[in-house]
Write a structure and sequence with these properties.
This protein is an all-alpha fold. The chain has 11 helices and no strands. The chain has one domain: Orthogonal Bundle (MetI-like fold), CATH 1.10.3720.10. Helix 3 packs across helix 6. It starts with a helix and ends in a 5-residue tail after the last helix. The C terminus is likely disordered.
């Protein structure tokens, strides 16, 4: 009885999860699907419009997410090191301030960036505000992943390296970083995916020519009856995300299993 109930529960959860890409896929390959059990008109026009007439959305999504990721790595790894491996005064306050970002809705971050960088430091007039906002929005997730990786690293290895005459910088690159690589790669891919999918912050900051795929989905939906194009963009995002996860898991030697645990020794 318990086994049957477990199977029913797993099937129910699987249906709920798979329903999203199935519905999006059906909508993406149809021009208009409204009030019908299944689409009656199949087409590739939606993808043609995205790939040929709106490639800037895809380019911006990768560009802004990539720059935000560079900021995240450059800032997140040193901060995680300071928090875990040093006794610098104020490190706990820094950890708290960065983690506090999780409590702020993306809408609030977007509005605050407009107010803060409209005058005085007019970054809101330039496209760099987009990756900066994505970086600030998703930094806590990368920091927590790097923080957890540092906690799993035995400090005696770094101490032995320093005792042998290597400086802290050389110890980091030759001892710490190779051992942290799996956890860092997991944090990198998760940071990129979340930045790639971000809309609540970006929707307040974008200007003409700065649109990303999530913003494109919203704009096409908001126009009315452009559900096919919006679904095609969403379906494309799902495919890109899946490919990124697959590539990272292959290159990293089971990075995702290392992050979530596979139960194998």
């Amino acid at each position: 009885m318990e086994k049957s109930a477990a199977y029913v529960y797993m099937i129910f959860i699987s249906i709920l999860v798979l329903l999203i890409p199935i519905v999006l896929g059906l909508s993406a390959f149809s021009r208009r699907w409204v009030f019908e059990p299944f689409p009656t008109y199949w087409t590739l026009e939606n993808f043609r419009l995205i790939l040929l007439e709106s490639p800037v959305l895809i380019k911006n999504s990768f560009l802004f997410s990539g720059i935000a990721l560079i900021f995240g790595i450059a800032f997140g790894l040193p901060v995680a090191y300071l928090i875990v491996r040093t006794r610098v005064p104020g490190k706990d306050a820094l950890d708290f301030v960065i983690t506090l970002m999780l409590a702020f809705p993306g809408i609030a971050i977007g509005v605050s960036y407009i107010l803060a960088f409209w005058k005085g430091i007019p970054l809101a007039h330039y496209w760099i505000i987009m990756p900066l906002a994505l970086f600030a929005r998703r930094l806590p997730y990368f920091l927590r992943m790097a923080h957890a990786s540092y906690l799993q690293l035995d400090p005696s290895l770094e101490e032995a390296s320093e005792v042998s005459g290597a400086g802290r910088l050389r110890t980091f690159f030759y001892i710490s970083l190779p051992l942290l690589l799996k956890g860092v790669l997991v944090g990198v891919v998760m940071f990129f995916i979340m930045a790639f999918q971000e809309i609540s912050t970006a929707i307040f900051l974008y200007r003409g020519g700065w649109e990303t795929l999530p913003i494109g989905i919203y704009l096409n939906w908001h126009r009315g009856m452009e559900f096919g194009i919006a679904a095609a963009m969403a379906f494309l995002m799902i495919v890109i995300t899946f490919i990124l996860l697959l590539i990272i898991s292959r290159i990293g030697g089971g990075v995702l299993k290392a992050a979530w645990g596979s139960g194998e020794k």
